[in-house]
Amino acid sequence: MLIAITSLILTSICAPWINHKIPNKAGWILSLAPLSLFIYGLLLTSSIVSGTVFNDSWNWIPSLGIELSFYVDGLGILFFLLITGIGTLVLIYTGAYLKGHPQQGRFYTVLLLFMTAMIGMVVSDNLLVLFIFWELTSITSYLLIGFKHESEEARTSALRALIITGSGGLCLLAGIILLGQVGGSYQFSELVQQGDLIHQSSLYLPILMLILIGAFTKSAQFPFHFWLPGAMVAPAPVSSFLHSATMVKAGFFLLARLTPILGLTAAWHAWVMGIGALTMLFGALMAIAQTDLKKLLAYSTISALGTLFLLIGINTELSIKAAILFLIIHSLYKGTLFMVAGTIDHETGTRDVHALEGLFRVMPWVGIAASLAAFSMSGLPPLLGFIGKELIYEAKIQAPGIYQWVLPLAVLANALNVAIALIVGLRPFLGKTPLHLSRKHAVPVGLWLGPVVLAIAGLLLGIFPGWINGLSNAAASAVRAEVTQIKLALWHGINPVLLLSIFTVILGLGFFAIREKLRKVKKRHQSLSKWGPKQLYEHVFESVLIFAKRHTDWLQNGNLRFYIVVIMVTASLALGSTLIRVTDWSHLVTNFGEAKVYEWAIAISIVTAATFTMLSSSRLISAIVMGVVGYSVALIFVLYSAPDLAITQILVETLTVILFVSVVYHLPQYRSLLSPSVKWLHAGISIIFGIIMSLVTLKAINIQLHDSISHFFVENSLTQAFGRNVVNVILVDFRSIDTLGEITVLGIAALGVYALLQWKTNQQEEL
Amino acid sequence: MESLLAVVIGCLYAIGLYLILERSLVKLIFGLLLWGQATNLLIFTSAGLLGGKPPIVPETGKLLSYADPLPQALILTAIVIGFGMISFTLVLSKKVYQRLHTDDLEQMKGYES
Fold first, then answer.
1. For the segment A201-214, what is each residue's pLDDT rounded down to a tens digit?
2. CB A479 within 8 A of CB A320
């Protein structure tokens, strides 16, 4: 399996190169990669059907307990075959569909990467590895939906799909981690044995809900469905491959995988069935009112996905088998119809059902494929769809306790789907060929081969259902974790199920006949869509952007004062709360009484001078009064044994005052620019900050965290550094590198001052 | 004296902050100067005050009781660096005023030349 995945990645890397060298045949050549994997899968199938499970394991991130381990059982191989088989045809189709597109190479690459991720997902044993592949499919899907990135619609649709499936993915990850913690392993093969333990865990419900959200978003279940119709802006191969045949089935795959672990509880039944049934009906109702071929198909895909969820929610032997079968059928006919829609669009330039008519004569092969697919979708014999529909009805009739309400819903949804099948698969081909189309050249092989092969597969499997009996039984057994043996047959004899089928088809024909009226009904209720989940999503999306903008405007407004206020208030709160928490106020020693008169005088002169600086309206006086503050501080240094500090302080103060006085007349006059209320606010903040700093100082005096290291300096000052003034020795000897740094800073400041003064003269010369 | 100085330090910080919050450039510089003084005093005071015992090793005998030399060394560095900063700021603000003809910090936003 590792080889399979690696070979696909290599192919995807080579794709642009191959496309560049042989642009016309690149699709055919590249399709060999998935084709060979498809054959490899077929070879494996027979032994898997007989009960073997392929296991492979490599240590990947041993420190996190993540193993790159593969587990290929019936379910895995079924998906593997679908992905590689349809993938082969889609690559061929792409070659013709995007012929000559400048970014065709990139398209191949992403498509092949998606294929890799999808295969990786369905064969992973480790749930975390599964999650990584799961997210990879979301990302490649994003790139593919946004392939026409010049169009804004494509970009928003791609982003919407990514956000919805991505958030679902996050829920899934949370669910997987919880599951791993409860079950003690991330290996699916080990978790299977822990089913009872997990069911009884108090975390069961959170796990279930998180994983269900992941599955619902990925598989476009109501109310997360709305990203899927939007995703139809992608090129047709993408819609056909990702958004009908494979990726949107990932949610179903996940639930099928986890059924033996999480399934069979009341909550499981209720949620999966409820949401499934709702989606089934909702999708069909929405689909019938569309006029765009691809939108029609998208909504009917949503409906089909709902059916799958409903069936897996019922969780009887029959319903699982029906789900597996329906999965195959749907991939075959929906893949066909999407490619047909793409071909029609490619050849005629429109997808509007009103504009399309009489295409059979222009593209007979496409017509045959489309009608076969439409018959399969309608559940007509002898196609595989017929067998599927019979089985589904039977499963629903036998559904314990709930068939009364499930069955009518199913009949309604199916009948609508019959009408949809006729609108998409039959109607465009009938009637008179419009003149502008009749002279069209023949449709290239690449554009009809894919649909025709898929449609004929549906026909052959319908006639010979025995071919897939073993595989679908193996897949169903994997889901149920017990052997399933239900034989498929085309003809069951005349029974209620057959009558129900006939009734459905007749009802569907009726819906087809009144389709225009149904559209009008939908139009009349257009206003209802204002309240849909899509609008909710958009509203939330916009609100987040607006919130982010306002938040940034408010906090990062470029106003220096605002920043300072925020910093200071935060600092005050942090310091103040810590002080209050740790301080025992009764032990805080104060010694105001010991202060001598001249000390009071110094203190008062400092505070007075500072206040004067603040209040003075003259710059010169402010500058001089600032000097008073500095000299008073110098006096304190003198009094308390710091002669060096005092000397430096006096020097620097003198220089500062001289500097101030020399530039002060070049500086602006004071102006009062702030309103009084703001000033009071600032005063309040300043006073609180000052009080806190006083308390911090008091606290600092009373605390000795470490022994002073000064005795080292004092002892070694004379003996080692030959200096008696310890402060000087520290500066020029013990900590001389610091002093060197200080000198450097001063030098740079001096250079800066010099440069600024020079700059002035240059500027004046220029002026 | 320590308690008294604590109050002085608080006052200097408060007045300094008030000046920094003004919209006028010159007042901002005065505020910075006051904060510088306050911080020096804070370091000086928190080391403990001791009168008349400078940390100078005498000609004879050992230095037994002395004021802590380490904070003094730190403050000395701080004073000098502070001077460097203030002189640069002063010249810079003078240039700014000459170029932009405003000392209003709000109006300076958005100028790039």
1. 888 889 999 999 99
2. yes
Q: What is the pLDDT of residue A649?
A: 93
**pLDDT classification of A766: cutoffs 50, 70, 90:** very low
- Put simply, the answer to whether A626 touches B67 (Cβ < 8 Å) is no
Give the residue from B19, B41, B57, B105 with the most A CB atoms within 10 Å of its CB, the best one to mutate.
Answer: B57
**Where is pLDDT greater, at A751 or A346?**
A751
Query: Which of B13, B92, B106 lies at the smallest CB-CB distance from A689?
Result: B13
Contact status, residue A41 vs residue A21, Cβ threshold 8 Å? no
Phi, psi (5° rounding) for residue A184? 80, 10
pTM across the whole model: 0.71
Q: Which of B4, B5, B19, B41 is nearest to A685 (CA)?
A: B19
Summary mean pLDDT of chain A: 85
Asked if residues A143 and A12 have their Cβ atoms less than 8 Å apart, the reply is no
What amino acid is encoded at A466 in this protein?
G
Task: Answer whether B53's CB lies under 8 Å from A697's CB.
Answer: no
Domains, in order of start, for chain B: 2-46+66-108 (1.10.287.3510)
Give the residue-averaged pLDDT of A459-477: 83
A442 touches chain B (CB under 8 A): no
Beta strands in A350-455 (DSSP E): none
Tokens standing for residue A244: 């009908």
A622 at B interface, C-beta within 8 A: yes
Contacts of A537 (CB under 8 A, 6+ apart): A160, A163, A164, A226
Among the partner-chain residues B37, B91, B105, the one whose CB lies closest to the CB of A629 is: B37
Pairwise CB contact (< 8 Å): B23 & A561:
yes
B78 Cβ under 8 Å from any chain A Cβ? no
Q: How far is A610 from chain B (nearest CA, A)?
A: 7
The answer to whether residue B19 neighbours chain A at the CB level (below 8 Å) is: yes
Structure tokens at A76: 């895995």
Chain segment A223-275, per-residue pLDDT in tens: 888 888 888 888 888 888 888 888 889 999 999 888 888 877 888 888 888 89
Confidence class for position B112, pLDDT limits 50, 70, 90: very low
Instruction: Verify whether the Cβ–Cβ distance A694 to B10 is below 8 Å.
Output: yes
ipTM: 0.91
Which member of A689, A714, A718 has the closest CB to residue B69?
A714
Count Cβ atoms below 10 Å from residue A257 Cβ, excluding itself.
26
For residues A570 and A21, which has the higher predicted lDDT (pLDDT)? A570
> How far apart, in whole angstroms, are the C-alpha atoms of residue A224 and residue A533?
7
How high is the pLDDT of residue A614? 85
Categorize the per-residue pLDDT at A421 as very low, low, confident or very high, splitting at 50, 70 and 90.
Answer: confident
Query: Measured at the alpha carbon of residue A381, what is the angle toward residues A409 and A356, in degrees to the nearest 5?
Result: 75
Residues in A closer than 8 angstroms to B92, CB to CB, are 752, 756
B10 contacts A690? CB cut-off 8 A: yes
Note which residues in 582-611 of chain A have CB less than 8 A from chain B.
Answer: 590-592, 594-596, 599-600, 603, 606-607, 610-611
Instruction: Tell me which DSSP letter residue B104 carries.
Output: B
For the cut 50, the answer to whether the pLDDT of residue B113 exceeds it is: no
